[in-house]
Amino acid sequence: MTRWLAALPLALMLILGLIGVFSLRQDPAESVTYPQDRKAPDYVFQPLFEADPSLNFAKLAKGEAILVNVFASWCAPCRIEHPLLMQLARDYPGRLYGVLHKDMPERGSAFLTELGNPYLAVGLDEDGQGGLELGLTGVPETYLISAEGYIILHVKGPLNRAILAEIIARRELD
User: Which domains does the chain have, with CATH numbers?
Assistant: First the structure.
């Protein structure tokens, strides 16, 4: 009986690992949705860094499209997609915002210090309410919000080159 109990954590880790592998291998076409007539929520995210403003994406998107990436320091796929976010920030400066979801501010700050900070500003979502308002199903997720404040593209899962090309092809960020 005790051997079975000792093997239980290992079996649980194996199952979670397999779920992670299958989610990373998901077809990009299945992870991108195009919400219709869905406004960005009128929710205020408090800033991660003192120098950043609080973020309200319903009001922030006025005039030009923006990308909002929801991430966490404990999220392995967030680490994997991070180089693409750095590229996006270089190619489209001032258009990428972050939301640290259900994470401690000091861990989020350390994550960005280690990997680089691609975001113009980062909002905190410690209790997850802001993510619910956005329509978050898990991290990472990325939202393309039009200049009129509508969510026009929702990426569930990590960005990859194909999804990045699709975002750029929409020409909303030009």
Answer: 28-169 (3.40.30.10)
